[in-house]
Amino acid sequence: MDSSNGKFDYVRKPVVLLAIGLIIGLIFCITGIILLSTSTETKGYEVTNDYTDCKYFDNPNERCKDVIARQPCACYIALNISEQMEAPVTAFYELESYELITGPYSKSRDDQQLSGHLSPTPAASCGNYSYVQTPDGQKKPIAPCGALADFMFNDTFSLQVNSEYVPTINTGLISDDEKEPFHNPEGNLEEAFKQFSKPINWPRNVTQLDRVHPENNGFQNEHFIIWMKTDLKRKPTWRVNVADDNFANGLAPGSYNLRVEYAYPASRYDGKRLFVLSSRQEVVNKSRRDAGIALLSIGVIILVIAISLLVLRKWERCRNCLRSAYKGPIPAQDN
């Protein structure tokens, strides 16, 4: 009986220990994954306003979308901020049916040109947006060429509080990695683009997109890059300037007026236009993240050890079985 129990314990104990190891490893891994997935949270809030049908300030009976076919149009919209919007505060525009504009034209561009290598012969993909006809009958190449650049959105927004404009900055809206594919040609910018025309439907040349920040012009203009990045449906247009002492902490609760310079033709886009003011940002809980990484790492190590021992045990048992099979029965001894 004792030898039988001893044999049973010999077989059972390693199996139980391996099972416990696998369970502990799985628990550690699952807990680590949960901690990692919940270590990032979104803080802040945002205000969204549909300004599609906003009324012409000089004639409230008319909508700006109907007026801009014959003249510029501005409208005002009341915004109520119910709680403190902690810095950084960013303004976005969003075209609900953005893909209807960019979808058919996303390939109509010259990436070689956008990288700073100007050529008198734009890429074939730019199609009808490659050249303009000059008064003397010559063809002048367009930079940036293509339908996507030509369709660049140009509604603009400003925010007022207590009859004063909120100071804003229109740079620092995207990361350096997002800017990487876009480069200006070397040398003087005006000289480099001298032999090129602005896109057909642009009011000014690519070298004059930002008159406040000269370095934010050409193909490196952030608004231009943001428009060309078709994966961004919600597009940043400016951020509140925290260098101003009155707005160092963002936007205080209260009533604001949004001024919209309605410029993008309804004939080109007739869907919803949204203005979004947001203080939302992702915040990482470092202690939770570090705990998640630690538990996941320990769990993986335990699982690897447990599985390795399980495989080793199986292999050992198979080897013993093979030995027994090859040895065969012991022959009887003659007396």
From TrEMBL:
The chain crosses the membrane at residues 15-36, 291-312. It holds the Pfam family CDC50. One of its GO terms (cellular component) is endoplasmic reticulum. It is a multi-pass membrane protein. It comes from Heliothis virescens (Tobacco budworm moth). This is Cell cycle control protein 50A. The keyword Kinase does not apply. The keyword Lipid metabolism does not apply. Belongs to the CDC50/LEM3 family.
